């Protein structure tokens, strides 16, 4: 039996890798729905190629263009919030959540509340609504499978063990393109330098997040919600080769790691095929050629975003939503050359100091807080340099 899959964020980096795997295994998957923000050509091409029945474009002005591009197919073109929710919760048994940012939260929750299996790449959804989402999954009987490479690694390392026997989780971090850069060079860094990740090829936003290392902070929050460990029992270790994707230490002193070449198709395939395995064309790991693996402590002085994320999680309030929204607007401003690279972390810090909402009771509260931070963006971001 083929599994019905929908891919949210099908035109992105994770979405594209998912399409690649799914089209290589047509006997395993039937694509029912695809979504994208603005890229009509690439969405329509993927819909035609996979035979999807629903294609959703988030930008409403582009619906006529999408309808034109799908003319003569059996694929329905749609737009708007309801259509995104339909893509996540109607026909699909398996939902790949690969929208970037808090924009993916509502469709992810729709999939969870409908009791689907959700392969979750969209870490911002879990960062902003972690407990609400894990509680909803428990209520609805939904399964959340981590796609983020570190969390997928931990999920694999936990298999067959009792959670009470886990001593700590160790999230590895590549350190990003500025691992050895001076604070002065980082202040002058350009978007081109920041998105040039040494090991992984990813979307622009997560590439900048890796450069500031807030990505590892978001992943700390993500790991806390996925695996239920106290933040003090989740460590971060810089490992520049990105071969060990994360580790679990047990009470007896055993440490289990998951290794592989840095290709997102490996964790994506794991989530798509779970509890089975499926082949991928990813390069095989050749340890004799790699020869040595390096490790070092993260430097919180040059990467203050790490500390900000840890504090936001310890705060126990709405701080992770503020952290995430301020980061999203600051990263967009940096990519637009309106602020400098080191202004990203200072914007996040100012937002956390000045915006202190009550803890959210519902997804609607999360969305309101996210909107409030975006509206206050002009007050918390530094003025353009010129
Ligand atoms: P990307 O920018 O390459 O793609 C994002 C996708 O989301 C695109 O299809 C885009 O059309 C869609 N999208 C963007 N804004 C939207 C909106 N407002 N409404 C609806 N759709 C929207 O991003 P990516 O690198 O593929 O990352 C996707 C998610 O996966 C992120 O949360 C990221 O943190 C996470 N992730 C990515 C990688 C990676 O290797 N790229 C690794 C781990 C985790
Ligand atoms: Mg990751």
From TrEMBL:
InterPro entries, sorted: DXP_reductoisomerase, DXP_reductoisomerase_C, DXP_reductoisomerase_N, DXPR_C, DXPR_C_sf, NAD(P)-bd_dom_sf
Cofactor entry? Mg(2+); Mn(2+)
Q: In which pathway does it act?
A: Isoprenoid biosynthesis; isopentenyl diphosphate biosynthesis via DXP pathway; isopentenyl diphosphate from 1-deoxy-D-xylulose 5-phosphate: step 1/6
EC numbers, comma separated? 1.1.1.267
Which top EC class is named for this enzyme in its record? oxidoreductase
Reactions the enzyme catalyzes:
2-C-methyl-D-erythritol 4-phosphate + NADP(+) = 1-deoxy-D-xylulose 5-phosphate + NADPH + H(+)
Extract one GO molecular function annotation from the record. Answer: 1-deoxy-D-xylulose-5-phosphate reductoisomerase activity
Q: Which residues form the 1-deoxy-D-xylulose 5-phosphate reductoisomerase N-terminal domain?
A: 5-130
* UniProt key word Kinase: no
SUPFAM superfamilies, alphabetized: 1-deoxy-D-xylulose-5-phosphate reductoisomerase, C-terminal domain, Glyceraldehyde-3-phosphate dehydrogenase-like, C-terminal domain, NAD(P)-binding Rossmann-fold domains
Residue sites binding 1-deoxy-D-xylulose 5-phosphate per the record: 123, 149-150, 174, 197, 210, 215-216, 219
Provide the residue positions that the database annotates as binding NADPH: 11-14, 37, 39, 122, 124, 203
Domain of life, per UniProt, equals Bacteria
List, for all copies, the residue spans of the domain called DXP reductoisomerase C-terminal.
259-375
Where's the 1-deoxy-D-xylulose 5-phosphate reductoisomerase C-terminal domain? 144-227
| Keyword Nucleus applies | no
Where along the chain is Mn(2+) bound? 148, 150, 219
Q: Which key words tag this protein in UniProt? A: Isoprene biosynthesis, Magnesium, Manganese, Metal-binding, NADP, Oxidoreductase
Q: Which family does it belong to?
A: Belongs to the DXR family.
The free-text function statement in the UniProt record for this protein reads: Catalyzes the NADPH-dependent rearrangement and reduction of 1-deoxy-D-xylulose-5-phosphate (DXP) to 2-C-methyl-D-erythritol 4-phosphate (MEP).
What's the protein called, per UniProt? 1-deoxy-D-xylulose 5-phosphate reductoisomerase
Taxonomic placement: Bacteria, Pseudomonadati, Pseudomonadota, Alphaproteobacteria, Sphingomonadales
